Amino acid sequence: MLETLVTGSGFWHPIFWLVALALALAITLIIRALGRAGYQKGTEQTKPFLSGQPEREKEHLRAGNIYWGFLEALRGYYRPLQAGHTGIAADYLAWFVAGLVIISIVLLWS
Question: pTM of whole model > 0.85?
Answer without folding.
Answer: no
